[in-house]
Design goal:
With about 325 residues, this protein is α/β, with parallel strands linked by helices. It has a single domain, classed as UDP-N-acetylmuramoyl-L-alanine:D-glutamate ligase (3-Layer(aba) Sandwich), CATH 3.40.1190.20. It is about 35% helix and about 20% strand. The strands form two sheets. It has a nine-stranded mixed beta sheet with strand order 5-4-1-8-9-10-11-12-13, sandwiched between helices. Helix 1 (about 35-45) packs across helix 8, helix 8 (about 255-270) runs antiparallel to helix 9 (about 275-290) and helix 9 crosses helix 10 (about 300-310). The chain is globular. The two termini are about 35 Å apart. Residues about 310-315 have low confidence and may be disordered. InterPro entries: KDG_KDGal_kin_Halo, PfkB_Carbo_kinase, PfkB_dom, Ribokinase-like.
Length: about 325
């Protein structure tokens, strides 16, 4: 059985070379990418066994996704569907002021009809951690129920539940997200949330340390991690807030950075690290991910160790 089981959609990512615009592109690079599978890959790279659950169309594109994820060393347990399509997203890379642009194409996808009864609940209940994100319930009303039911199954089986809030404004409004996601909170042990999302969606005020305290106290989470972009992250646990700055990095591809952070944090906690140490390794993994094209953090444990040991690249306090 796996240490961590994740649930969600993985899309095919299509992007033109360099900083070309989609409307002028003659070719597109194809990669698989999705928050939940990205987390599974990062956790696996740091030593945790990981399984990704999903519902996937029985098509060449669906098989491409599953094959690529298996090639990254994680287990896949999917429901193959003859209905619905494979989700995709288009990515334009560019510097400022244009910036990186993401265009989703994920209507009527196979996973939008996924129900909890279709999955092997024993996989979740025999794992140490079940992980999903706020992206999944944003995809359909069916998935809102499915996410809730899978979290309940994890709680019933004694499996810790980790959840990345991961608000996506292109999928739903702050009001919709708040109404849906707060209903999931009673089933969550570890919450990861961006400071901006805690303010914009949940209406909390204060600096990241205050946000972590408020979230942990109000919703009775075991651990709260508040990310703050280039400034690093804070982690609340046992009513104590720990702080770690981001490591310096030359960014090649920022997509998947947060997923790399979360996967590494969970893996190190599973390995017995305390919260400050897990934050340290999560920040190092995130920094390395930004140097790698694609969504997945194709790092090694030795590389992460090297970044952590080079104190000139980051400051913790």
């Amino acid at each position: 059985m796996s240490d961590i089981v994740t649930f969600g959609e993985t899309m095919l990512r299509l992007s033109p070379p360099g900083s070309e615009r989609l409307e002028n592109a003659d070719e597109l690079e194809v990669r698989a990418g999705g928050a939940e599978s990205n987390v599974a890959i990062a956790a696996s790279r740091l030593g945790a066994s990981a399984t990704w659950l999903s519902k996937v169309p029985e098509t060449p594109l669906g098989r491409r996704v599953v094959g690529e994820l298996q090639g990254h060393g994680i287990e896949t347990d999917v429901v193959w569907s003859h209905h619905g399509r494979q989700g995709t997203y288009y990515l334009e890379h560019a510097g400022e002021p244009r910036g990186t642009n993401v265009i989703y194409d994920r209507e009527n996808t196979a996973i939008s009809t996924a129900e909890a009864r279709e999955f092997d609940i024993d996989l979740i209940q025999n794992a140490q951690v079940f992980f999903t994100t706020g992206i999944t319930p944003a995809l359909s009303t069916t998935l809102r129920d499915t996410t809730l039911n899978l979290l309940k199954a994890a709680r019933k089986g004694g499996t810790s539940a980790a959840f990345d809030f991961n608000y996506r404004r292109k999928l739903w409004s702050p009001d919709e997200a708040r109404e849906t996601l707060t209903k999931l909170f009673p089933g969550i042990d570890i919450l990861v949330i961006a400071a901006r999302d805690a303010r914009t969606v949940l209406g909390f005020e204060g600096d990241p340390r205050q946000l972590a305290h408020k979230l942990g106290s109000q919703y009775d989470f075991t651990t709260v991690v508040v990310t703050r972009g280039e400034e690093g992250a804070v982690g609340w646990h046992d009513s104590v807030v720990h702080d770690h700055a981001a490591y310096e990095t030359d960014t090649v591809d920022p997509i998947g950075t947060g997923d790399a952070f979360t996967g590494a944090f969970i893996a190190r906690r599973l390995d017995g690290d305390d919260v400050p140490t897990a934050l340290e390794y999560a920040a190092a993994t995130a920094a390395l991910k930004r140097t790698i094209p694609g969504d997945a953090a194709l790092v090694t444990a030795d590389e992460v160790d090297a970044v952590v040991k080079d104190s000139s690249k980051g400051i913790s306090r």
